[in-house]
Design goal:
By secondary structure, the chain is of the alpha+beta class. It is built from 14 helices and 31 strands. It folds into three domains: 249 residues, BirA Bifunctional Protein, domain 2 (2-Layer Sandwich); 140 residues, YbaK/aminoacyl-tRNA synthetase-associated domain (YbaK protein, Alpha-Beta Complex), CATH 3.90.960; 97 residues, Rossmann fold (3-Layer(aba) Sandwich), CATH 3.40.50.800.
C-alpha cells in the first residue's frame, strides 16, 4: 500500500486526555480517532490489525467445532423481560424505542437472543452439544469511559455460547474453551494469566477471566509465587488460620474505655497503643434489605462480593450513617458487636476468630470496649471467608504465598447452567423423550480490547512495536527523498519485488522530510523498516528491526533471502 493512497494521520503531540500508552500511541500513530466519549473509528491500520486478531480467533474456535453466526445488535425488550434483566441490568443498557413505541436495547451481550434462537430451532439431543459464536459490535453506556479502547461505550467483541443437555458435556466444553482462549493469547504473543473470577451481571458459576498483565490494568490479580494458582483479588479464597488454644492469651475482663476523638482503626491503634491485629472492625450492611453486622480484623477489608456469595444475597450495600444512628444510637466508627439488638445477624471473617482480648466499638459515641473476645463477650452466627486476600497470605492451593500484579481483562468464560434456559423455557428432548432445559456456557473475548492490550505490551518511547503476526503490514519501505531519481527508482523496484513475494508492504512514497518519515515509521511500529537513501546508486539499503532497534545494510540482491529467513525464524 502506498502511503500517499491511504489514511494514516499521525500526530506529533500526545492528546491531553489520553492517559495510558496504548491510547496515546494508537491516536498518535493514526490507528484510531474518537467520535464521542468511549466511541472510536478504526482507521485503516487498526482495521488491518483487528482482522488479523479475528483470524486467529476464528481459526482456534473453528478447530474445536464452533460455528460462526451473526446476531442482531438491536434486541427486542421482550426477550430481556423473559429473564428479568430489562430491569436488573442497570444504567449501562442502552434503551430505545421504535416509531411504534416498542422497546429495544442495543446489545451489550447476547444471552437472551442466542437462547431464543436455539429454543426455536433446536429441540433434540441429537444436535448437541452445539457451540455458536459471533464477532460483533456491542454497546454499554459506561458512566466513565476511559483508557481509550479499554473501557468504551461501543466495542468489538467475540461471544460464544454452548448448549448441552448435561453438566458433564458443559464441563468438557468449558475446559476446551479455556484451552482455546489460552492458545489465542499465546498466538497473539500476550503475557497473561487465567484467573478465577466473579460472574457479575452475566451470572453463572465456575467463571474464569483471562488477564493480560499490565501496570495500567484495573483488576488486581492475586497469584502464588510457587504454583499456577491465580485469581481476581475479589475472588481469591483466604484460608482460615488454625486455632491453637495453647498459644492463646488468657481471657481478660472486658472494659469500657473513653475514646472521645477516635473513630478510625488507625486512631484507636495510636490512642490505645495496641497492634492493629488486635482490633475488630464492625460494619453494618443491608443484605437484601435486612440489617446485618459484619466483622473482620482491623487490618483487613471486607469483600462485598464474597459477602454476597456467602449469604446468597441479591443485593449487599453499606448502611448509611444516619440509618445506623437511628438503629444503634451511635455513628460509624463507634459500632461494635457487643450487646446488639436482639435478632441482628452477625457474620464474621475467619480472622476475627483468632482475636484475643481485642478492641471494638461500644455502640456509644466516644467509647470502645477493650479485652473483647468472640464467643465470650459476643456471639457470631457464622464465620466465613469474607475479606480481601493480601500479599503474603498463604496461597489457597497451599503452595507458596500470594503476590499481586495488575491485569487487563480481555476474556471471560462462564458456566451459565440453566439460568437462562429455564427462564426462557428453552428445552430439548433427551434420549428418553423428556424435555430438559439446556445447560449453557458463555465465552466472551474483547476484540477491540485485545488491540489495545497488545499495544500496551508492545511499545517503547518512540511508538508501537507490533508482533510480526499482527502488524498491519510486515514491512515499512521508506524512500528518504522521492525527488531523487535513483532513490525513487530503487524504491519502486523493491516495492514491486516485495509484492511479487506476497509481503504486506507499506510504501512511504510521501514528499516529506526524512525525520518525519522515520518518526512516523517508529510510531506505526511495523516489524521491519527498509530505507532507501544515499546509497541507492550502489544498490545498498538500510534495514532496521523495530523490536530491538538493530540496523544493518544489505545489498538489494540479498533482500528476499534475508527477509525469508527473518520471517521463517519468528
Amino acid at each position: 500500500m502506498r502511503q500517499t493512497c491511504t489514511l494514516i494521520p499521525t500526530m506529533r503531540e500526545t492528546p491531553a486526555d489520553a492517559e495510558i500508552a496504548s491510547h496515546q500511541l494508537l491516536l498518535r500513530a493514526g490507528y484510531i480517532r474518537q467520535s464521542a466519549a468511549g466511541v472510536y473509528s478504526y482507521l485503516p491500520l487498526a482495521n488491518r490489525v483487528l482482522r488479523k486478531i479475528e483470524r486467529v480467533i476464528r481459526e482456534e474456535l473453528e478447530r474445536v467445532g464452533a460455528i460462526e453466526v451473526l446476531l442482531p445488535a438491536l434486541q427486542p425488550a421482550e426477550l430481556w423481560h423473559e429473564t428479568g434483566r430489562w430491569d436488573e441490568y442497570g444504567l449501562e443498557l442502552f434503551r430505545l424505542q421504535d416509531r411504534h413505541d416498542r422497546d429495544f436495547a442495543l446489545g451489550p451481550t447476547h444471552e437472551e437472543v442466542i437462547t431464543s434462537l436455539v429454543r426455536d430451532e433446536l429441540n433434540s439431543y441429537k444436535k448437541l452439544p452445539l457451540t455458536l459464536y459471533q464477532i460483533q459490535t456491542k454497546f454499554r453506556d459506561e458512566r466513565r469511559p476511559r483508557f481509550g479502547l479499554l473501557r468504551g461505550r461501543e466495542f468489538i467483541m467475540k461471544d460464544a455460547y454452548s448448549f448441552h443437555l448435561d453438566e458433564d458435556s458443559l464441563d468438557e466444553t468449558y475446559e476446551q474453551m479455556k484451552d482455546v482462549y489460552s492458545k489465542i493469547c499465546n498466538r497473539l504473543g500476550l503475557r497473561f494469566k487465567v484467573v478465577e473470577a466473579d460472574g457479575g451481571s452475566i451470572g453463572g458459576t465456575d467463571t474464569h477471566e483471562f488477564m493480560v498483565l499490565s501496570d495500567v490494568g484495573e483488576d488486581v490479580i492475586a497469584y502464588s509465587d510457587a504454583s499456577n494458582y491465580a485469581a481476581n483479588r475479589e475472588m481469591a479464597e483466604v484460608l482460615p488460620i488454625a486455632l491453637n488454644a495453647e498459644e492463646q492469651d488468657a481471657i481478660l475482663p472486658m472494659e469500657r474505655v473513653a475514646t472521645p476523638n477516635e473513630r478510625t482503626i488507625e486512631e484507636i491503634v495510636t490512642s490505645l497503643k495496641i497492634p492493629i491485629e488486635q482490633t475488630i472492625k464492625t460494619l453494618l450492611f443491608l443484605v437484601d434489605g435486612q440489617l446485618t453486622t459484619v466483622l473482620c480484623r482491623g487490618d483487613y477489608e471486607v469483600n462485598e462480593i464474597k459477602l454476597k456469595r456467602v449469604l446468597h444475597a441479591e443485593q449487599v450495600e453499606l448502611a448509611e450513617d444516619a440509618f445506623i444512628h437511628e438503629q444503634l444510637g451511635c455513628h460509624v466508627g463507634s459500632i461494635g458487636p457487643v450487646k446488639l439488638p436482639v435478632g441482628m445477624k452477625v457474620i464474621a471473617d475467619w480472622s476475627v476468630r483468632t482475636v484475643r482480648n481485642g478492641v471494638c466499638g461500644a455502640n456509644e459515641d466516644g467509647y470502645h470496649y477493650v479485652n473483647v473476645n468472640p464467643e465470650h463477650d459476643f456471639a457470631v452466627d457464622r464465620y466465613a471467608d469474607i475479606r480481601n486476600i493480601q500479599e503474603g497470605d498463604l496461597s489457597p492451593d497451599g503452595e507458596g504465598t500470594i503476590q499481586f500484579t495488575k491485569g487487563i481483562e480481555i476474556g471471560h468464560i462462564f458456566k451459565l447452567g440453566t439460568q437462562y434456559s429455564e427462564k426462557m423455557k428453552a428445552t430439548a428432548l433427551d434420549c428418553d423423550g423428556r424435555a430438559q432445559p439446556f445447560q449453557m456456557g458463555c465465552y466472551g473475548l474483547g476484540v477491540s480490547r485485545l488491540l489495545a492490550a497488545i499495544a500496551e505490551q508492545y511499545n517503547d518511547e518512540h511508538g508501537l512495536k507490533w508482533p510480526a503476526q499482527l502488524a498491519p503490514y510486515q514491512i515499512h519501505l521508506v524512500v528518504v527523498n522521492m525527488k531523487n531519481d535513483e532513490q525513487r527508482a530503487l524504491g519502486e523496484e523493491l516495492y514491486a519485488l516485495l509484492q511479487s513475494y506476497r509481503y504486506d508492504v507499506l510504501y512511504d512514497d510521501r514528499d516529506e522530510r526524512a525525520g518525519v518519515k522515520f518518526a512516523d515509521a517508529d510510531l506505526i511500529g511495523l516489524p521491519i523498516r527498509i530505507t532507501v537513501g544515499k546509497k541507492a546508486s550502489e544498490g545498498i539499503i538500510e534495514v532496521k528491526y523495530r523490536a530491538n532497534g538493530e540496523q544493518s545494510e544489505w545489498q538489494k540482491e540479498e533482500l528476499t533471502e534475508k527477509l525469508q529467513q527473518y520471517f521463517t525464524e519468528l
